[in-house]
Amino acid sequence: MEISPRGYERALSLHELLSGVVPEKLSAALGSLLGSPARVVSADGSWALASAQPLPMGARRMPLFHDLEIAGYLETTSNDDAHVRAAAMVLESIMRSGARYFMASEMHIEVVQADFEELKRKHEALMASEARYKALAEHLEARVKEQVEIIETAHRHLYHAEKLASVGQLAAGVAHEINNPIGFIRSNLGTALSYVQKFQSVAQYIKSCNDAELIGLWQAADLEFVMEDFPPLLQESIAGADRVTRIVADLKGFSSVDQTEEELVDLNDSIRSACNVAANRINSRADLKLSLGELPRLRCKAGHLSQVFLNLLLNAAQAMTQRGEIQVRSGIEQGQIVISVKDTGCGISPDILPRIFEPFFTTNDVGAGTGLGLTVSRDIILAHGGNIDVSSAIGAGTTVTIHLPIDRRNK
């Protein structure tokens, strides 16, 4: 690439040399330095900077040199030689800086122009090459697009499988760690309740005896209230332990989400398990209402469908800008199992709705999601021979409906 030295070797005018200076600021600086009015004029008098009016007759003119030639003059009424020379030196320094700027600018323009010409030549060569292979490229593009779709689908499935495996390991570990202590807590509570019943039989004897001291001790310790309050407390604790046991059972169900074998399941059980797992996220945002009809057992990958239900419930909870309601329904319609999740959240705008199943598309903040929840859910439903539909309106909420063929139950 050759660069011809042309623009930056020409003689620059005073106006160009001082083009980087703000006139008002230079005027103020000269006035402060010289203590009197001053202006800068070109050598031929065709251009002036700083003072708008010529100075009185008898004003001093100090030549300003650039490249050993007079480029202009500094005119002033000041009689202070030292200050005038200092002002001239400052102006000449500014002019040299301006000249270097113009030279660098011209060289930059020529380099860019040369690069552009080189790129233009290469572009023309590429266009010619593209014309020669256009027919092949069209066929290749279709093949590449097909392979990219296959790779993207495989990537999503791999990502989902790894995520499910991690969730399964975590859920299995948590369930195992909780199951043992909650088992003996439940057993001990039952035993404690039987002990209380024995104390109650002894209490009847104490209250009926005539031992004043023993009765006094009984009343002083308020054991009558204790015997009345203790059984309900134990019953509540037993109910809480049973609830934890059910949650552990649900976690065990989710611990098998990475299994590939199909099994016969009642999808209502999967829905209830998903609701229990998501309860903490849902209860703080919405009231959950279940309307589950009787369903035939379906042969499917239960863990995968449970993940779909969990994704839809969490999305519904996230859509709540204020406390609302989430309705989950199941039933049979036109020979298909139909499951719907309806929320009263903010809804989805019509311009975004067609994109919600796109991989990595999300309306959440950065870091709040991967954008694969609905994509993976759709892939799972399609893999089961079904389909998933979404209807929504801004401010009116969103309804996600899943249709699954019943004839899969015998396959």
Question: Looking at CATH, which topology of the largest domain would you report?
Answer: Heat Shock Protein 90
Name of the CATH first level of the largest domain: Alpha Beta
Q: Average pLDDT across residues?
A: 77
Q: Report strand %.
A: 15-25%
CATH level-four homologous superfamily name of the largest domain: Histidine kinase-like ATPase, C-terminal domain
As for the number of domains, it is 3
Instruction: Give the spatial strand order of the biggest sheet.
Output: 6-8-9-11-10
Class derived from helix and strand content:
alpha+beta
Write down how many β-strands occur, each being a DSSP E stretch of 2 or more residues. Answer: 11
Main beta sheet strand tally, sense and closure: 5 strands, mixed
Order of helices and strands: HHEEEEHHHHEHHEEHEEHEE
> What is the helix content?
55-70%
CATH architecture identity of the largest domain: 2-Layer Sandwich
**Helical segment count:** 10
Radius of gyration: 43 Å
Spans of 5+ residues with little confidence (pLDDT < 50)? 1-5, 366-370
Give the termini distance in whole angstroms: 72 Å
Descriptive terms for the model:
3 domains; 4-stranded antiparallel sheet; Heat Shock Protein 90; alpha+beta; 55% helix; 411 residues; disordered N terminus
Task: Write a structural description.
Helix content is 55%, strand content 17%. It has 411 residues and is α+β, with helices and mostly antiparallel strands. A hairpin with a 2-residue loop joins strand 3 (60-66) and strand 4. The model is unreliable at 1-5 and 366-370 (pLDDT under 50).
In short:
This protein is of the alpha+beta class and 411 residues long. Helices cover 55% and strands 17% of the residues. The protein has helices at 14-17, 23-34, 81-132, 134-208, 212-220, 223-254, 267-277, 279-283, 302-318, 373-383; strands at 38-42, 48-50, 60-66, 69-76, 263-265, 286-292, 298-300, 324-333, 336-343, 387-393, 397-405.
